[in-house]
Design brief:
Elements lengths: L4 H8 L3 E4 L11 E2 L5 E2 L4 H12 L3 E5 L5 H9 L5 E2 L5 H9 L9 E4 L6 H6 L2 E4 L5 H6 L2 E2 L8 H12 L3 H6 L3
Helix pairs in contact: 1-7, 2-7
Length: 176
């Protein structure tokens, strides 16, 4: 997939990628067991994409409207920080984070898939939505991945950002 020049220019500045969870890190489906337990499926390639970003000195965080112990476990496994759960007003959550982080709005990328993500997508330096993101987000985002949420969209975004910054090939070479 060809990435537009304006997206590459925005990606060059990114120091922090913030992610929504359901529909981005997962396929958006919620699974409940008979005992009320919640289950989520996370894509291992997205996890490696997050690790690649971290190797490239790009911080990864989460802002999500739902609260999930499973998410916290996955975030801990991947050393994701900050993790903000239970915040439906994601723009307010982002503005609060900006008070504690050493980044500017144009140095932040955010990946979301639906209307609760719209205000943040409009404000950050690089708004991204997965292939199955809502039509409204697709119209407002700077870039839409070719992969769907929970199926490698985060990895695709990670590689695009790292490539724009000239960091991808050296990081990939470290695996050889």
């Amino acid at each position: 997939m060809t990435v537009p020049a304006n997206v590459i220019e925005a990606a060059k500045k990114i120091k922090l990628l913030l992610l929504d969870v359901d529909g981005v890190l997962t396929d958006g489906r919620l699974y409940y067991g008979n005992s009320g337990e919640e289950m989520k499926a996370f894509n291992i390639q997205d996890g490696l994409g997050i690790k690649l970003l971290q190797k490239g000195d790009i911080q990864v965080g989460i802002i999500t409207g739902r609260v999930s112990a499973l998410l916290q476990r996955r975030a801990d496994e991947l050393s994701i920080n900050p993790v903000v759960q239970g915040r439906e007003d994601k723009l307010t959550a982002l503005n609060e984070l900006l008070l504690t982080l050493d980044v500017q709005m144009d140095e932040i990328a955010f990946m979301g898939d639906d209307l609760p993500d719209l205000a943040v997508i409009r404000r950050v330096g690089l708004g991204i939505t997965p292939a199955n993101g809502s039509a409204t987000l697709a119209e407002q985002a700077h870039w839409q991945t070719s992969k769907q949420g929970g199926q490698g969209a985060v990895r695709e975004a990670a590689e695009m950002i790292l490539e724009a910054q000239g960091k991808l090939q050296p990081i990939l070479a470290s695996f050889q």
